[in-house]
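Please, structure for the following, as tokens.
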Amino acid sequence: MNWTTLVDVSSLSAVLGDPRLKLVDARFVMLNAAPDAGREAYLASHLPGAVYADLNRDLSDLSKTGEGRHPLPDSDAFARTLGAWGIGPAHQVVVYDAGDGSMAAARLWWLLKVMGHERVAVLDGGLAAWRAFGGAETADLAPVASEAPYPSHFDTRRLASADEVTARLGEGSGWLFDARAAERFRGDVEPIDSVAGHVPGALNLPFTQNLRDGRFRPAEALRTELAALLGTRAASDSVLMCGSGVTACHLLLAFEHAGLHGARIYPGSWSGWISDPSRPVARGD
């Protein structure tokens, strides 16, 4: 097992139960659902041996202000969480959510990458693909052999700050990509945040465009399209954002799957950007 971006259901099924494998269920429902809907779904049925990761409690620190709706957790706290899940540097981690990885499997994939853990992948197609395949599920909660806190910290060089985005506003297009739906990017509607629109100069790249029938499109096709948007820029010059730093991780996964390495995420994203009313806002295409 050496999966670093995506893994298909057949490959995962073949190693289910391997002690070197750690499974994490990251199901989360963003809108119009009870706060614990994802956890309740996990308790009802999940992949055998999977632990549960809550977007709000485990993959964010909602006590922080000015950093968007899903601020990054404290690095030490996240290291302790990984240890409690029994995840150490030697493990192959596979994360899944209900479907395409956007809620919030890709977020955990990215947090582990920022911790320096390379052998982590998202289950392509998620639980929906697993069920279509006929994969095993259980409601049993297997005991977890905890480990010491993960021996690393977030590599902040892999993050982009609001100050950096502000400093680069005068650059040409092709470096800042926003993964939200087109109508939110334009500012036609805004069902979540208090201000509609986008960061001036950003290009809209809805994460859903990277998918076909709930799975990621072939790497070659994604590479052709993303490279055209980058132009002469390297992928490592890119900054990715969304509403709160969750679906931006899905967009980063598409970049990495396509072989375009090194893009960084602005964790605060749109909800963090608008926390300072002095920052400029654009609307329209």
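The first strand starts at residue 6 and ends at 7. The chain has a mean pLDDT of 96.
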